[in-house]
């Protein structure tokens, strides 16, 4: 469930697109209704992404608070290839319950389960961070070989200093710095989560498709800089590469085989 402050921001954001959400006593069906309406009007990716970012980080707890996304009043992990120690704890407790758990064991579980949940949540965050870092290292090493190449991309996060875009088919993220947008001076609209040109009014928002060039790859700082290009330049490169039997737009599939 979204924290109250993030929910208020979400309500304000979707209102700008003509949607509504209750601030008090929000239910999963309210979120589903919002996504369904956004799908019908072509805003699904934008609204879904901002809604997901509004949700509270999942943590393990000894308290049953249900599952907001699944609309379950009762919820616990049980088993899955991606689960870790919390599943094992549940397995052990179920086994002891089914075989007749003693009073001392009940007391011991009650004493330990809280810190086990907290520790599991903390270690999961460490594991997720390590995974992200390892992926970024591989992405940077990979794209360092393709500086100057062109790709189709999707904007995933406009910010005051630029916008992060994800290269299609690769899932690699890079930054398009605001300072490189030479056609206008762009300001960031916090409420609508978009960059807006002051003179021409051009807007960049989550889900917009763009064409980019890999401008710079910094292996030390693990940063990838992208530059916007227009459709004419992209199509021109496609035609040029087509003469050689290789299209720029299919290059991402080729790059995946190299990695």
Can you characterise this structure?
- The protein has 259 residues and is of the alpha+beta class.
- The protein folds into three domains: 4-54, no CATH class; 85-136; 147-258, Beta Barrel (OB fold (Dihydrolipoamide Acetyltransferase, E2P)).
- The chain is 43% helix and 19% strand.
- It has seven helices and eight strands.
- It has helices at 4-15, 28-40, 44-54, 85-98, 103-143, 231-243, 251-258; strands at 150-159, 162-167, 173-177, 186-189, 194-197, 203-205, 209-218, 223-229.
- The chain has a five-stranded antiparallel β-sheet.
- A hairpin with a 4-residue loop joins β7 and β8 (223-229).
- α1 (4-15) runs antiparallel to α3 (44-54) and α2 packs antiparallel against α3 (44-54).
- The radius of gyration is 23 Å and the shape is globular.
- Residues 243-259 have low confidence and may be disordered.
Number of strands: 8
Radius of gyration: 23 Å
Uncertain ranges: 243-259
The top-level CATH class of the largest domain is Mainly Beta
CATH topology of the largest domain: OB fold (Dihydrolipoamide Acetyltransferase, E2P)
